[in-house]
Amino acid sequence: MNEKKIKLCATNEVQEFVKAASDCNFDINMHYERAIVDAKSFLGVLSLGLAKIVTVKYGGSNHTFESVLQKYVVA
C-alpha cells in the first residue's frame, strides 16, 4: 500500500486529480481525520475540503496517476 500526503487548493486541481484516479484499475482512498472517501469521486474529494493536507492511499501503480499525484505532494 502506497501512501502520500497531498494538498488540493482549487476545484480544477480536484478535477485533474479525480480524472487521473478514475483511469486507474485499483482502489484509491483519501483520508482526512476520520473521514475516508473514494478518490475517484469528485464530490467525495470536495467534501473533505480544499486546502487541507489529506492522505492518499493506493495499492497499484499507474504512471499518469503518480505524475499527477506528485504535483500536489506536500513535505
* Head-to-tail CA distance between termini: 19 Å
**What integer is the average pLDDT?**
97
Number of strands: 4
Sequence stretches where pLDDT stays below 50 over 5 or more residues: none
Can you count the helices? 3
Identify the CATH class. Alpha Beta
What class would the helix/strand composition place it in?
Answer: alpha+beta
Mind telling me which CATH architecture this is? 2-Layer Sandwich
Count of domains: 1
CATH topological fold name:
Histidine-containing Protein, Chain: A
Helix content: 25-40%
Give me the side-by-side strand order of the main sheet: 1-4-2-3
Strand content: 25-35%
Along the chain, the helix and strand elements come as EHEEHEH
Q: What is the alpha-carbon Rg in Å?
A: 11 Å
- Name of the CATH homologous superfamily: HPr-like
The coarse silhouette is globular
Pfam family, one: PTS-HPr
Domain HPr: 15-52
Organism: Brotonthovivens ammoniilytica
Protein name: HPr family phosphocarrier protein
Top keywords for this entry?
four-stranded antiparallel β-sheet, single chain, alpha+beta, 75 residues, Histidine-containing Protein, Chain: A, globular, 3 helices
What can you see in these coordinates?
This protein is α+β, with helices and mostly antiparallel strands and about 80 residues long. It has one domain: Histidine-containing Protein, Chain: A, CATH 3.30.1340. It has helices at about 10-20, 40-45, 65-70; strands spanning about 1-5, 30, 35-40, 55-60. The protein has a 4-stranded antiparallel sheet with strand order 1-4-2-3, with no helix packed on it. A hairpin with a 2-residue loop joins strand 2 (about 30) and strand 3 (about 35-40). Helix 1 runs antiparallel to helix 3 (about 65-70). The longest helix is centred in the N-terminal third of the chain and has 12 residues, at about 10-20. The model has no long low-confidence stretch (mean pLDDT about 95).
